[in-house]
Give the backbone structure.
Amino acid sequence: MKALQYVTVGAEPEVREIPTPEPGPGEVLLKVTAAGVCHSDDFVMSMPLEMFGFDLPLTLGHEGAGTVAAVGEGVRGLELGTSAVVYGPWGCGTCWFCAQGMENYCSRAGELRIFPPGLGAPGAIAEYLIVDSPRHLVPIGDLDPVQTVPLTDAGLTPYHAIKRSLGKLRPGSWAVVIGSGGLGHVAIQLLRQLSSARVVALDVNDEKLEFAKSVGAHEAVLSNAQAPDNVRKITGAAGASLVLDFVGYQPTIDIAMGVAGIDSDVTIVGVGDGKSAARVGFGVSPYEAAVTSPYWGARSELIELIDLAHEGAFDIAVERFDLDNAPEAYRRLAANTLRGRAVIVP
Ligand SMILES: [Zn+2]
Ligand SMILES: [Zn+2]
């Protein structure tokens, strides 16, 4: 089969011919129908050799959708041909966090060397994908896999980040979304669906600001050194009740802290450069502002998102690429010229 693989640290990923895998005991083989392209892949591929923790070559893609092509020994209750999306942050299934469905925070994944597909385990940008357990599949029925696959990360990550702060999004409050790309443009829609907060989106050019408004932002502001003042003109002195930073570099974290209000949540979702940080302390940050950096979301939350998708809740912006053109999708991602999510359709 064909797969997009990261072969050499520092080089572009390559489309290669590799053996089609067979499901072992307890595993599921999916025929991939769609796979999303994410900034965190770029982050992984920017790591120097001494920091790179995965075996190479690595098949990329941690957003996956497919139809069940075969099941391994012991797999029950899953019909061949079922159309499903993949819950990516695989865990052990039995620790306390996994028991809550929060396999994204599995306490044993490191010790057991359990990796998400595309981030250690072979990923979804291929003709076939091995899923380690049927519990990591969420059936999607008649939903379009290309439109739905971004929900597994670009939807699930903001959903998890927003859900934990819903209590702060009272009527009249403001939520600020920094970055209106793959995750941010879903976050804006989720905020509108789930809360009565008003939404300010920040991004780096007018085209992206128009896009943010087209998916539901009430206001849109250029992300630059004047952004905190310009956002405060909209929110008033109270500032934002929730700030979601989908970029995570120092300039956006500084904006996030600059627009946060008293008793707000500042949630840094973007992976940035892995070094940028918020300063918290008396006189430095707003009183009782809580800063956090979440990772992905829970299995139950992906099920909830798919239910929302069945209600027609989302307008996911997708640019399609075939598997042979997958390297181009990564070039466009790095150049920041994608509208919404790039999805590879094998
Ligand atoms: Zn991702
Ligand atoms: Zn676990």
The mean pLDDT is 96. The radius of gyration is 20 Å.
